[in-house]
Design goal:
Helix content is 40%, strand content 22%. By secondary structure, the protein is α/β, with parallel strands linked by helices. It has a domain at 4-147 and 169-202 and 257-265: 3-Layer(aba) Sandwich (Rossmann fold), CATH 3.40.50.150. A 7-stranded mixed β-sheet has the order 3-2-1-4-5-7-6. Strand 2 (67-72), helix 6 (75-84) and strand 3 form a beta-alpha-beta unit. Helix 8 (151-160) crosses helix 12 (229-244). The protein is globular and about 55 Å long.
């Protein structure tokens, strides 16, 4: 049974698939190739993409010649992934319970997913169950520092005087550092764990970037769309002014991003977890 955090996640993402695909998905997709490299996904690899969202990683794995199965907890994401990753098997499933037999996959990947499940350890242990001995796992999450991608929204909310609600916190949390994410994989029984930082700059049109929170995506979207019409307009006005001061000559924002990537090998089954 879902706890408070997981219930909030289901509420937060309900109906937000299209808005996410048109805004924040491109930023998260910046880690896709490094994620697949770390999981050693290539031609003939049977790979599971959990939390596939609109199918960005699934499509990239297909392009490598992999056999792809992808799952997501949000039905809207399942529909988008089905359209965006033709050739992949797309299913609805919610971590930490996956509808697959033990040792079903050569590899598993989870792009910015472990911070969206109530018990990351249980999720990683379940992934170890469905990956064959010798198979690989790779996961990403955002670093606890150095990310400026969301700063414009928070600055605009501050300028407009918006008070943030308190949303449920991750009950089984981990340090968002190289050692923290790597340690989480080790605790879940993964072997040969390695972890590192990924850094890139995402370039985006200011209106496209705004469409994420304006469309209700993630907690920032719940805050923005929860305002009165007058306050929403104040936030948008503040955002427009702040964004105008940060665009380059081509009219695009430069959004620095810092993520964490950890990977490991399945040494044995997860029986008795």
């Amino acid at each position: 049974m879902a706890g408070e955090f997981d219930a909030h996640e289901r509420h937060m993402w309900a109906g937000a698939a299209e808005a996410y695909a048109g805004s924040f998905a491109a930023l998260c997709g910046g880690a896709a190739e490094a994620l697949l490299d770390a999981a050693e996904v290539g031609a003939g690899t049977r790979v599971l993409d959990v939390g596939t969202g609109p199918g960005t990683v699934a499509a990239a794995a297909l392009a490598r010649g992999a056999e792809v199965v992808a799952v997501d907890a949000e039905p809207g994401m399942v529909a988008l992934a089905t359209a965006n990753a033709p050739g992949a098997e797309i299913r609805h499933a919610v971590l930490p319970e996956l509808p697959f037999p033990d040792s079903s996959f050569d590899a598993a990947v989870a792009n910015f997913v472990v911070n969206h499940v109530e018990d990351p350890w249980a999720a990683l242990t379940e992934l170890r169950r469905v990956v064959r001995p010798g198979g690989r796992l790779a996961v990403t999450t955002w670093h606890d520092a150095g990310n400026e991608a969301m700063s414009l929204f928070n600055l605009a909310l501050d300028e407009a005087g918006v008070e943030r609600p308190v949303y449920p916190a991750l009950p089984v949390d981990f340090d968002r550092t190289v050692d923290g994410l790597g340690g989480l994989l080790e605790q879940a029984g993964w072997a040969e764990v390695g972890s590192k930082e990924l850094a890139w700059t995402h370039r985006e049109d200011p209106e496209v970037w705004w469409s994420g929170p304006a469309g209700g995506v993630a907690n920032i979207g719940l805050v923005v769309t929860g305002q009165t019409a007058e306050m929403f307009a104040r936030v948008k006005s503040a955002y427009d002014r702040l964004a105008a001061g940060r665009v380059a000559d081509d009219g695009l924002l430069s959004l620095p991003a810092v993520a964490l990537l950890a990977s490991g090998r399945c040494e044995k089954s997860a029986e008795g977890r």
